[in-house]
Amino acid sequence: MAKTAVALYECAECGWRTSKWAGRCGGCEAWGTVAEVPRADAAPRPGARAQLRAVAPVAAAVPIARVDAAAARARPTGMDELDRVLGGGLVPGAVVLLAGEPGVGKSTLLLEAGALAAAHGRVLYVTGEESAAQVRLRADRIGAVSDALFLAAETDFSALLGHVQAVEPDLLIVDSVQTISAAAVDGVPGGVTQVREITAALTALAKQRSLTTVLVGHVTKDGSVAGPRTLEHLVDVVLHFEGDSRGQLRMVRAVKNRFGPTDEVGCFELGEFGLIGLPDPSGLFLSQRHDPVPGTCVTVTLEGRRPLVAEVQTLVCEVQSEPRRVTSGLDSARVGMLIAVLQRRANVCIGRHDVYAATVGGVRLTEPSVDLAVGLAIASARSNMNIPGDLVAIGEVGLAGEIRRVTGVQRRVAEAERMGFRRAIVPAGSDLMAPASGREPGSQLEVRQAADIRAAMAAAMGG
Q1: What are all long-range contacts of 325-328, with beta carbons under 8 Å and residues at least 24 apart?
Q2: In angstroms, rounded to a whole number, what is the distance separating the alpha carbons of residues 68 and 384?
Q3: Which of 16, 20, 223, 271 could make an S-S bridge to 27, C-beta 3.0–4.6 Å?
Q4: Which of 56-60, 297-301, 351-355, 369-373 comes out lowest in average pLDDT?
Q5: φ/ψ bin of 150: left (φ > 0), alpha (ψ from -120 to 50), beta (otherwise)
């Protein structure tokens, strides 16, 4: 006899399924996350074929030129940095997933955005992690109180739908989707099945009512959105809100955006009275000193389309035991590669020395264009020679010691000049256009092109 139900085992982190229990997930390799999920056996009988037939469509197909695109235009939220990432604002009927680590400021960001959006329509803020009184206290502190901003502390999905029918909002904010549960869906609250089904139901509701919906999601230890990977495919926009909990800088990045670009970044400063947009955050990543210090070098990185001036600091100390390589804000693998290149291609002896490399302001630099600045900073710290304070270094360093070209050199150089730098080292063969008209005489940046790391060291430290 055929079984009416089969036992499946599913990972609570990524949704990986197997017919046998395993202590370690085969998808995300997490331990202790695989649990049994009973379901009805929906396998078709051998030889059975699906019965396909045509049905009458709900709406007839029309020429694309007759489709009204006004309903899908973005509406600004009132936060310029958030609108920059979204591509102009929130689109009616769109579902946005805002992911980030606990305590980074997701609730503060959405509470401010909801209060600003309440000036143009009703906003429903559903919180499942805090009480209504706690949210009200935060709203009083950051000035996010509005008569058109409705607040509900709810964890039941059916009650959430009731609030939507009663308020009829133009914007729905759910904080967070992991805390909402439905009695008709199997699984524990926050599990894979619950999160997936609730997100699918909210997406269908948003499309049906043209209701802009923003969902808050937590991230796992590896930085991915908690729950199945299919969660990112159900929504229209995926934003990552990141930043060091010990610092004040916060950044919003678009990982997926059906209505705008995915190469933009929004910068905020988290203070006592909420988040403040930073249209010019370059000054946060530079140390405030007047005299140059060995082991420091400035570079220009591209965060999306925005160039940011950042400083790299290194310290090299001789030791008798096993040398250490410690990094903060930099890719440790690339720093180790640069140390090997300096030793082999530039005769910089660092074998029996500790190397500490960090960025200023808590910014994380992962772009390969910062290689040259990190290499020059390490060489400067090892030789105890200063790099001029008005110099920036831009370029990717290869294993042969060559400096490879990077994109956006013109924008990087223009940003460095705007910040007051007067010299720049760029890869050989970089395409640099003539300076724009209207600049004051004598303000042109002196650019030197270097083919390899040795030439860059000679240009930066004079020999």
Answers
A1: 325/354, 325/355, 326/354, 326/355, 326/356, 326/357, 327/356, 327/357, 327/358, 328/357, 328/358, 328/359
A2: 66
A3: 16
A4: 56-60
A5: beta
Note the pTM of the prediction, 2 decimals. 0.77
Is residue 43 very low, low, confident or very high in pLDDT (cuts 50, 70, 90)?
very low
Question: pLDDT by residue (tens digit) across 90-148?
Answer: 999 999 999 988 888 999 999 999 999 999 999 999 999 899 999 999 999 999 999 99
By DSSP bridging, strand 353-359 and strand 325-328 are: parallel
* ∠ CA 198-226-157, rounded to 5°: 20
On the question of pLDDT at 176 being above 90, the answer is no
> Which amino acid, residue 8?
L
Quick one: DSSP state of residue 103?
T
- Smallest CA-to-CA distance from 235 within 325, 153, 174 is with 174
H or E element in which residue 197 lies: helix 192-209
Provide the mean pLDDT of the chain: 87
Matching residue, tokens 């400021």: 105
Q: What is the pLDDT of residue 439?
A: 38
For 283, the 3-state DSSP assignment is: helix
Convert the pLDDT of each residue in 13-31 to its tens digit: 777 888 888 888 888 788 8
The strand pair at 34-40 and 5-11 is best described as antiparallel
Q: Which pLDDT score, from 0 to 100, does residue 378 have?
A: 97
Confidence of residue 222 (pLDDT cuts 50, 70, 90): low
| Cα end-to-end span (Å), the chain | 85
DSSP state of 273: T
Spell 238-267 as b/e; 16+ CB within 10 A means b. bbbbbbbeeebbbbbbbeebebbeeebbbb
- 194-231 burial: b if 16+ Cβ within 10 Å, else e: bbbbbbebbbebbeebebbbbbbbbbeeeebbbbbeeb
- Cα separation of 238 and 240, whole Å? 7
Query: What value, to the nearest 5°, has the Cα angle with vertex 105 and ends 179 and 192?
Result: 30
Residue keyed to tokens 């331990």: 31
Q: Is residue 89 a contact partner of residue 75, using CB atoms and an 8 Å limit?
A: yes
Cα gap 94→92, rounded to integer Å: 6
Q: What is the pLDDT of residues 232-270, one digit of tens each?
A: 889 999 999 988 777 788 889 898 999 888 878 898 988
